[in-house]
Amino acid sequence: MNSDNHLVKRNLAIGISIMCMAAVCTSLGQLLWKLSSKSENTLLLFIAGYALYGIGAILMIIAFKFGDLSILHPMLSVGFILAIVWGRIILEEPITLQKLAGITIIIVGMIFLGLGSKKK
Question: Where along the chain do its domains lie?
């Protein structure tokens, strides 16, 4: 029975990791869409954005094999955090107190979800 519990935890960790990779891909895809709106390479950036977004969707499907939807899907919230980071680094957007509060709430929520999954 301990072996089964270890397997469930291992699978969940794999699922969360894959879901975080999906969040990276989808957030980068959305960044490319934003950049395409003010670039000379509009079509290239637009297509690359869709490709990354599609890869993110495929990764989500794969991740769902490793755990519960109610635990894994909210991990896509990492994408919101990444959007703020990409906006700051690439688009030179400010990080406001409200954005920091939002990041904190997202992180706390993911911690609560992770703790809630340990009841299995």
Answer: 2-119
